[in-house]
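Good morning C.,

I know you're traveling, so I'll keep this short. The sequence:
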Amino acid sequence: MKSLEKRRKDYYYQRAKSEGYRSRASFKLLEIQERYHVIRRGDVVVDLGAAPGGWLQVIHHLEASAIAVDLQQIAPLEGVTPIRGDLTSPEIVNKIQEIVDAVDVVISDAAPNLSGAWSLDHARSINLSACALEIAKYVLKPGGNFVVKVFQGDLFDTFTRDVSAYFRFVKAFNPRASRKQSAETYIIAKRYVRADRLTKLSG
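The tokens, ready to paste straight into the viewer:
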């Protein structure tokens, strides 16, 4: 009951309801877009962990199209092609490439199911983020952009260095729309430089 009451008092939760967004997370992507301009009109964007679709609504607002990957079914949105599947599965790259050869942007707001054990939750977050990076490495066009949520912790710097090996610009960013008590941050990576060294996954 207290959790529901907190949500009702949450500024971004209330704003999402009033503005018709499916999630308060929409405002995180809007902040990222305002600051870093990761999505351009006409882009093809892969949204990993897309349910319930708050980021998809922002993509549509920006006049881009999306491929939405999630284990859950996502209510239909114009300009969105859904893929029902686990972003940690190697099959996801092939499923994306069956739709389009390469994309302009890969974004991920995916988070693990929380256990309450911080070291375990951080490690699970890094694993999801690493899977998102792996997908981005195979499906991004040269010069493409990547945004991924990561929980801060002792593996954060290593993961950031991994991202930096593939992008010319890498920055950590904490949107105002993130809850104050949250340890989440977002890695903003722009101008992918290694696409020519990778080939389509087989299997």
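Safe travels,
E.
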